[in-house]
Amino acid sequence: VQVTVPDRLAEELEKWADYDGRPVSNLCAYLLERAVNDAKREGADWSTQQNRRTQNRSFDQ
Questions:
Q1: Per-residue pLDDT at 47
Q2: Is 28 exposed, middle or buried (0-12, 13-18, 19+ CB in 10 A)?
Q3: What is the DSSP letter of 22?
Q4: 56 in helix, strand or coil?
Q5: Is the pTM of this model over 0.85?
Q6: Which of 2, 16, 25, 33 has the fewest beta carbons closer than 10 A?
């Protein structure tokens, strides 16, 4: 997985990773895993074929 982030965010992630003494990629993996777990805990379910856009057409408006 490759991710492109704004320069400002990349700088913040670099500072945070340096502070924690770990690589930026490791910090990002941790943050992504935490975000997915939080979403699941809040009821997210990606097992269906429909996504948020097909369920709610007003999403794009």
A1: 85
A2: middle
A3: S
A4: coil
A5: no
A6: 2
With contact defined as beta carbons under 8 Å apart, do 36 and 45 qualify? no
Domain of 40 in residue numbering reads as: 1-44
7 lies in a domain?
Answer: yes
10 pLDDT above the threshold of 60: yes
What is the domain count for the chain? 1
Give the rounded percent of residues in the chain with a pLDDT score beyond 90: 72
Q: Is 57 part of any domain?
A: no
Query: Could you read off the pLDDT of 26-48 as tens digits, one per residue?
Result: 999 999 999 999 999 999 998 87
Give the domain CATH number at 7.
1.10.1220
